[in-house]
Input
Amino acid sequence: GAVVSQHPSWVICKSGTSVKIECRSLDFQATTMFWYRQFPKQSLMLMATSNEGSKATYEQGVEKDKFLINHASLTLSTLTVTSAHPEDSSFYICSARSPSGTEQYFGPGTRLTVT
Amino acid sequence: AQKITQTQPGMFVQEKEAVTLDCTYDTSDPSYGLFWYKQPSSGEMIFLIYQGSYDQQNATEGRYSLNFQKARKSANLVISASQLGDSAMYFCAMRGNDYKLSFGAGTTVTVRA
Output
């Protein structure tokens, strides 16, 4: 089946620093990837849609200058949390749209803790 | 705009019994897809079952079945013969024409031995 990886699986960083999270589709090409954020015991909230070769589309209320998304190839999208603050601590999950378009394959998630 | 509603924050079920998780939705898209995902404490999202809006038959995948009632805009998940490993959070989600997924609030299922 389709596999999506994320790296790192968890990261601790200091307030004010930037953190980059990678999302890779391992056995298929993904023209579209999605980034979600999830707080403990809450639902997944879509942050942005990442399209290969073009600018990401951000959902309302998501700061595009804070959450930089780059989809440089058909198998890799990155999310950079810039100038991280403790309130950015969360579980970040990516997904990749299947070639048929009907499904999304999810990565295992990245747990970010900002101290 | 799409909206998914899961009204059961948590449910307890006895091992080997069946449990039904409720999900209602609202959309103006004529074509859409409905999904159920399981999220254990590890955080990974595990795909369980899919129902297309034009599918005539209710979807089934092993112990999972989706009770799709289009007129009522409901897509309830039935887990039969519950196992201890079924304890997790379950999310109902809908995909619209823009291919984005909208998730419900989730239901935590605890299976008792």
Notes: Chain A has a mean pLDDT of 94. The two ends of chain A are 37 Å apart (CA to CA). The CA atoms of residues 58 and 64 of chain A lie 7 Å apart. Chain A touches chain B through 23 residues (CB under 8 Å).
